[in-house]
Amino acid sequence: MRTYQRCTRCVMDTTDSKITFDKNGVCDHCRNYDKNIKPFWKPQENRYDELKQLAKQIRKDGRNGDYDCILGLSGGADSSYMAYIAKEIMHLRPLVFVVDTGWNLNVAVENIEKIVKGMNLDMYTEVVNWKEMADLQLSFFKASISSCDHPQDHAIFAGLYNYAVKHRIKYVLTGSNTSTEFIRPPVEWLYMNDITMMKDIHKKFGKVPLKTFPMCGMLKYRVLYKYFYGMTRVFPLDYVVYDKEKAQQFLHEKYGWTKYENKHYENVFTRFFEGYYLPKKFGFDTRKNVLSNQILAGTMTREEALRILEKPPYDPEQMEQDKEYVAKKMGITTEEFDRIIALPNKKPADYKNEMWLIKIGVEISKRLGMEKRNLRL
């Protein structure tokens, strides 16, 4: 059993089983940041000239369509501020794409409405078949792995990419950004997109055929969609100074946008999954990588982060209500859900998977300079 250790610079620790420390107790996430991210990342520099050139190209390529780009909107700060940049700074004609997985809280729905109405944007909502979604999510819980939010994440980005290609919208804008995501949750906490594993888990534990569930494997969107259909992913937030706290205040003042309790807590399933399931069953707390990002970015001190981690991820009473709600929505009792959660822990390697392909993809991305984060597979 490995002796517990926490990084002396950020708050990542040995719940990441592959973490390493130098003689000063600094972890490899921090060392990777110093070597591969910090020298090239200019968080206090607005790259407006590059952004304007990019916007000019997007407008040119999309001049004959109703929309020159498409963007996914969850109601969270990243995607909401990205929508503002796209419309008001880049002067694009985006179509807002929303995926209804059946789990969004009212605050997320209201935020989406405020952003869309405030910017006078068109919106398309794709509603995932609930029986298929619930059956697939329950299958993941029965599989007893840590990545039970995979079905929802997959549906969101697969729906977006598939729609973009089908309707010949070349540019897909995303709120992913260096400022808040240069420390990714370890793969053992949140496994990467693996459509082979998803299908195998559903085959073993599912009951409802996935006839309409959005699917898009890594080869499809990274190779087929990109090189044969010309789909291009764009990250507008990487071109501007993005201070999340200031962005949230701006969105609130301009559009009435409402801040969430934690990152991704606009969704009741994700709130339960990250706030209870991962810490309770596996000992994984995704607040650690989020807070570590903020520490390295200089927007939070390590002492502040440690004080946050001393508190539960969210209110215990709310958690119990969420557990009952999630169980009921998936069609089982709370008691049955507890029994499922108590099953022996499994790993993606216990099922058919594409880990070999993902490893190749990550290695190629690193060699090409497309992936600078500390991904260890």
| Rg, Å, rounded | 20 Å
Mean pLDDT: 92
Largest sheet: 5 strands, parallel
Number of strands: 5
CATH topology title: Rossmann fold
Instruction: Describe the strand arrangement of the main beta sheet, using strand numbers.
Output: 3-2-1-4-5
Helicity range of the residues?
40-55%
Helices and strands, in order, run as HHEHEHEHHEHHHEHHHHHHH
User: Which regions have little confidence, pLDDT < 50, spanning 5+ residues?
Assistant: none
Helix count from the secondary structure assignment: 16
- Under CATH, the homologous superfamily reads HUPs
Structural category: alpha/beta
Strand content: 5-15%
Spatial shape: globular
The CATH architecture: 3-Layer(aba) Sandwich
